[in-house]
Amino acid sequence: MSSSWSIAEKGWDEGFEAKGTPREAYAGVVSVLDGLDESEIQRREQLQQISLINQGITFTVYGEREGTERVFPFDFVPRIITADEWSHLEAGLQQRVQAINLFLVDVYGEQRSLREGIVPWELVFSRPDFRRELVGVLPRLGVFTHVAGIDLLRGEDGGWLVLEDNCRCPSGVSYVVENRGLLTRVFPDLFREHAVRPVDHYPQMLLETLRHVAPRGRERPVVAVLSPGAGNSAAFEHSFLAREMGVPLVEGRDLIVEDDQVSMRTTGGRERIDVLYRRIDDAFLDPVVFRPDSMLGVPGLVHAARAGNITLANAPGAGVADDKAVYPFMPDLIRFFLDEAPLLEQVPTFSGRREDDARFIADNLADLVVKRCDGAGGYGMLVGPTSSTKEIEDFRGVFEANPGDFVAQHLVEFSSHPTWTGDGFAPRHVDLRPFVLCGESIRVLPGGLTRVALQEGSYVVNSSQGGGSKDTWVLASGGAP
Amino acid sequence: MSRMLARAAENMYWMGRYLERSAGLCRKLEVARNVAVEVGGLDPDATLRFLQDMALLYPGSGTIASGQSVHETLESLLDSYLLGHGNDLSVAVSLRAARENARAVRDYLSREVFESINGAWLNLSSSIRSKRDPDLVLPEIQQRVFGIGGAMGRTMLRDESWAFMDLGVMLERIHRVLYVVAHRLPAALGDGTLAIPVQVALLRGVLRSGASLENYRRVRGVELDPAAICGFLLLDRHAPHSVAYGIRVMESALEDLGSTEEGSEARRRAGLLSARLRYGLREPVDWKEKGASCLDIADEILQIHEALTRQYFAV
Q1: Strand pairing partners for A149?
Q2: Which among A149, A293, B188, B241 has the fewest CB atoms less than 10 Å away?
Q3: Which of the residues A237, A267, A279, A298 would you substitute to probe the B interface, choosing the one with the greatest number of B C-beta atoms within 10 Å?
Q4: Structural domain total, chain B
Q5: What residues 203-222 of chain A have any CB closer than 8 A to a CB of chain B?
Q6: Interface pTM, i.e. ipTM
Q7: What is the pLDDT of residue A481?
Q8: What is the number of structural domains in chain A?
Q9: How far is the C-alpha of A434 from the C-alpha of A481, rounded, in Å?
Q10: Selection from A370, A333, A359, A407 nearest residue A107 by Cα
C-alpha cells in the first residue's frame, strides 16, 4: 500500500527513502494510515476540522477591509524526529540562543564584538531594531530573549539548517500543544507503537522561566501576558498561554505606571505586576520611548523596566539579533562568545556589506535569492532562478545603489513531507520552528511547530498564505517518553 | 487575594447579559410561534397585539409593521429578532457580542463554555449566510443557547468571574421579566372580552416568556389568574426567573465580591430593591397597579448597572 504514497521528486523526502520504502521512523505511521480506507480518513479529517472550528483555534488574516478569522489547517501525518537527531538539534539550538543573548548583552553593554569587528558597528547601529535608548540597560540576569523561535529547514541532503532567528515575539507554540491534543483524539492509533515526547508542559516551562527572571526581592512574582487584544492575529495564542499558565491576560489599557511601578487595574484596585510576557512589538510597547501614536502600549513601561521594577520578556531591543543583516554573522558570533564551532549550520548567506560578497551577489543575481534586510513577507526581494532577464537587470540597479541593504542566499530546495491531499498522500514542503526558553537554564520544547505548504510545489508555509501545520514528534530514546 | 482585571470583569458581565438576552429572545420567539399556531386563527387581533408587544419588551428594537397577517408578523419577528436584520436587539447580534466578550476572557472560561458559545454563533452565522428557513434555525439555536447555560453551571469556577457573569445574567433577566409583567400581561388580558381558550393560551405565553409556566403550575396549580401570575413572576423566591430570586442572586454575587452596603452603591440599591419587593408588595398583588410600577423597578435595575460600572469596571 505504501507504494501509493508519492514521494518528492526534488529535495529530501522526510518520510520515504524511495518509492514504497518508508524511512525507519515512519514505517509504523505509514502502516497505520495504510490500514484506513479513504472514507475513514475523510471522516476523521472532518472530525478534526469540526474540533478546530468549535474550539476557535483560529488566527486573523487582515485584508483590505477587516480581519477575517481562519482556522489554521492541520495535516494529520505527523512529522517525526528521532531521539539522536533531536539531541543534536537541541544542543545546537541551546548554543545559538546562548550566543544570541550574549550578543545582545554585548550590543547594549560593552560592545566588544563591535569594537573587535565581529559584526560591523555601523551595521548594528543602523538597524531599525537597535534601540539606542536602551544602551546601558541590561535586563535581569542578562537575558534579553527569554523565548526564541528558531526557524529550521532540512537541506537537500537532509541536514538541518537555520533559516532565521525570531527573538522578539515568536508565535505558534499554542498550535504545537493543540495539534498534539487534536491528533491524540482523532488518530490515537498513530501513537500505538511510538514513544513520543510530550509537549503539553510548555506553559509550565514558560511560567518557570518568567518567574526566574522576576525583579529581585519578589518572592511570589505576579506574571501577566500582554496582548494587543482580541483582534490581534495571534489572539488565540495569547489567551491560550495566559489560561494555561493561570496568569492574567492584559492589554495596554489595563496597565498603569506610577512611580516606575507597573500595576493592572483590577476590580479591587491596582495590583503590581512583576513580569510581563509581552506579545506586542517594541514599536508599540511604550509611546513615551517608541512610537508616540501607539494605542496598544503603556506609557512609562520602559522606564519602569529600566528602574528594575518589572521584567519585560522578551526585553525591548532584542530584535537586533534576528535582523536579516546580522544573520550572516551568527556563526562568527557563536565562535566569538562561546569559543565553540556552531553546532547547527545555517543557510550560507552573502552580505551586501562585505565587499567580496557584494561583488559575488552582483555577478550571480540570476542564481540567488536576494532579500532586503528590512523587508518581510516576500516584498522587495528577487528570486533569481525564477525571474526574467529584465527583472534581474531592474533589480541590479536597485541593488548596486545600496548593496549594504541586501543579503543573498542560494535557493534552498528544502525538504518535503508526506501530507494528506484529500485523495491521497503526497510530498509538501515543510519547515520547523522549535521554541527555546532561556531562564535559569536554556530549555527546548521537544519538537516545535512544523509548517507545511499545502499547495503542490509551493514553498510558502505561512499561515496567511495557505500554509498549514503538523504535529511534530520527537521520539524518546530507549522507548520511554 | 488577587482580584480580576476590571476589563475582564466587564467582559464577563456583558457576556452574561448577552447570553441571557439571546436565551430570552429565543424563548419569546418560540412563544410567539406557539401563540400564533394555537390562537392565530381563533383571534387574529389578540394574537397580533401579543406578537407586536416584542417591541415593548425590547425598547429600541424597532416596531413590527402593522397591517400584516399573523403569519407575516411572525415571519417579520423571526427576521428581525432572530436573524438580526435591522435590529441590534436580536439573537444574532447578542450571540455575536457574547462570543466577542467570550473571546476577550477566554482565559476565564472552561473549554466547554467557550466551545458552546463559539459553536452556537458559528451555527447561527452560517444559517444566516445560507439563508436557511428561520423556522428551522430557531429550535437549533435555542437548544444551543440553552446548552451554554448548562456548560457554565457544570464547568465554571465559582469565583469572582462567575459573580460578574451572574450579575449580568440576572440583571438582564430581571429587566426583561419586569417588562413582561408591565407590557405582555396586560396585552394578554386585552379588554377582558377574550374567549377563554384565547385568554388561556396568551396567559400561558406570558408565563412561558418568563420561563415559568411549569414552575407556576407546580406552585400555584393550573388556574391562570393574572394576580397570581404577576405575584409569581415578581415575588416567588424559588423560581429562577422571578424578580425576587434574581435580586437575591445579585445580592449574593455582590456579597461574594466583598461589597458592603455602606461601601457599595450597587449593593445598597440591590438591598433597597429587595426590601421593596419583600415588604412593599404583598400577595395578592394588584397586578394592574403593580404591573405599572414594574417600569420603576426596571429603571432601578438600570441604576444598579450604572453603579456596577462605576464601582468595578471604570477603575
Answers
A1: A166, A435
A2: A293
A3: A267
A4: 1
A5: 222
A6: 0.78
A7: 40
A8: 1
A9: 18
A10: A333
